[in-house]
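@channel sequence for tomorrow's demo:
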Amino acid sequence: DDDGNRGVRINYVMEFGNYGYLDQLTGARWNTPRTGMHQEIPLRHWHLRDPGVVPNLLQTGAGSPT
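structure tokens (generated this afternoon):
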């Protein structure tokens, strides 16, 4: 994740899964105010509290795993 939000994650890739990159109904990006928004930016970045979003297996923080 290169936009400075410390939001790198590891996921199980499920066919047709919703991974929370955008709001599924409105297409809104991560920084648009919404109900249930996380206080922490790394968690807010992926819409993790939105219904139907596949949960992260691991939130690694800043930078990608090597």
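heads up for whoever presents: The chain has one domain: 1-66.
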